[in-house]
Write a structure and sequence with these properties.
Layout: H1 2-22, H2 31-46, E1 50-52, E2 55-57, E3 71-75, H3 78-84, E4 90-91, E5 94-99, E6 103-104, E7 109-117, E8 123-133, E9 136-145, E10 157-165, E11 172-178, E12 183-191
Parallel strand pairs: 6-12, 9-11
Antiparallel strand pairs: 1-8, 2-10, 3-12, 4-9, 5-7, 7-10, 8-9, 11-12
Helix pairs in contact: 2-3
Length: 192
């Protein structure tokens, strides 16, 4: 029995030494997460969606301008994203207000400002992704859990902005929307 305890102790000490000495810095390899990302990307591409780079800002202060009229759309992700996304992202509870220009010059940056409400103060806005299919643009703001057990957001609503380049978008009329658990916010704008 002493030999078993000795072998276990030697193994633990040597494993700890090797692990600390030769461990690669940074995040470890996660093959399951990588497979999910590849599958999601393939399903979105199959449905005709492409990801567009977007810069986010939070909190954001709106700059005045000529705003496009806003309407309301369907609840949640919609059929395209529900079937394509392996892990359903957490969404904002609602999009309360949107301020976006009615037109933009080709090649210029386009910025949409919006106010979103969180469903729980233990969450925060994590990332905003932009997807394009033809003349349809969809902003997908996702929420993430705040680190720690005792951290809470101060308010359940906040102002955000999403900016993207129109350099790769041909001139024309585009339909944009921001998805949430509640009705999506939708508007049209023209690229000249």
């Amino acid at each position: 029995m002493k030999w078993v305890a000795l072998v276990i102790a030697v193994f633990i000490v040597s494993y700890t030494f090797i692990n600390l000495r030769y461990r690669k810095p940074g995040k470890g390899h996660e093959p399951a997460a990588e497979m999910k990302q590849r599958y999601t990307a393939a399903k979105l591409k199959e449905a005709g969606w492409e990801k567009v780079p977007v810069d986010t800002r939070r909190p954001a202060e709106k700059i005045g301008g000529d705003d496009a009229p806003i309407s309301r759309g369907l609840l949640g992700l919609g059929m395209d994203f529900t079937t394509a996304l392996v892990d359903k992202p957490g969404l904002l509870k609602s999009i309360d207000q949107v301020s976006a220009p009615a037109s933009a010059e080709a090649g210029a940056d386009y910025t949409a400002y919006f106010t979103g409400t969180l469903s729980d103060l233990k969450y925060q806005l994590g990332d905003i992704e932009l997807y394009r299919r033809g003349n349809e643009l969809v902003l997908l703001p996702t929420i993430e859990h705040l680190p720690g057990k005792e951290l809470y957001s101060r308010w359940n609503d906040a102002n955000y902005s999403a900016t993207f380049s129109t350099r790769n978008l041909p001139p024309g009329i585009y339909q944009a929307s921001i998805l949430a658990q509640g009705p999506a916010a939708k508007w049209s704008f023209r690229i000249r």
